[in-house]
Each structure stands twice: as structure tokens, then as C-alpha cells.
Specification:
The chain has 199 residues and is mainly alpha-helical. It contains eight helices and no strands. 65% of the residues lie in helices and 0% in strands.
Length: 199
Amino acid sequence: MSVSADDGAAQLRKMVDRAKTMQDHGYSNSEIASAMGITENYVRNLIPSEPEINWGYNCLTTGVHHGRPEALWNMPLLQMTYIFNPDEIKELIVYRIYTDALIYVHRGSDPRPTEQWAERIKEIAEERYLNVLQLKIGEITKYYESPAWHRDVHGVIERIKNNRLNPRYQPLHSHDSINMLCRIVGVSASIEASKDIAE
């Protein structure tokens, strides 16, 4: 008698649930395989490991930071202030920083920081983000109004007229993105939170 597709799917779900439960209780893949009478490789297929984290996307990383690739995070700061209201901006910034902190708590290298550390980062980011945003907008506005910027614009126009503009040309100031705002606020908040927790 053959097993129906529905029965097979139900049996597979039970195996996955059992393997995950055992993993949550600290059993190794080898122990799970032995208990369930399957191979260790089959266990890995049932409960694949979480995808590797690209730490360059995390706004709290020290060293190289790539920012997140989604278009939202590359939005210029002035544009952000036209599209989102102040409460929405606060949530965008604070929760991006907080969720990145939680990645360290749940998936970082040992010794991992605590959830208390992530909560403290969130509190500091809430207190600090508006001041940093205002400073960055002031800095960026000054840059876009400078004689050097206007000279660059004329050079770009000339290259366009001669069809010689570099396809990778990026007119934005290096700090003019939500990514960079999250990084600036997030890194300073994580440093302060680490000091607070250590005391």
C-alpha cells in the first residue's frame, strides 16, 4: 500500500517538528540523527542552519560597513524628512538600530551581549537620533550650497554634454543616507550602552 502525498507531507512535518524540538533542547545533529534513526545529513536537510549574516549590513559593526542594500536605507536625509513624519522617522531609525543590536544578542560571537544591552542601545538611540539628524542635515545642506559643490556640478554637466560621465558617479554627500544616520547613531549608542552595562 503506497503512502499518499498528504500522509507523506504530514509525516515529514512531524519529523521536522521533532528535530527542531530536540535542537531547541540542545541536542546535536548527531544525537538527533541517532534518536530518529536517520543520517546526520538528513537532519541538516530537515533543519537547515540559519543563513550566514552579512555583518557589513549591520549598522553597529565596527570596520567595514556596507549599509543595507534596500532602496529605503539609501534614501537621502532631506528626502526622508519630506516623505516621513517625525514619528515615522524615529521608528525607522530606532528600530533599525535595535533590530541590528538584537542580531548581535542572538547570533553574534561569544561572549554575546545581553538583551539588556540591546534595550539600552534603543533608549540611547531614541534620545540621540533627532540631534544627530539635525546636525547631519545642517552639514549636508552646507555642503550642497558650497562653491566647491557648484564647481563639481558644472564639471558633471560638461561631462554629460560630452557623453563622458562615469556611470558610477554619485552626487550625494557620503553621509547623506538613512544608512549612514543609523550607523552614526547606532555605533555611538552601542559604545555608550556597553559602558553603562559594564558599570
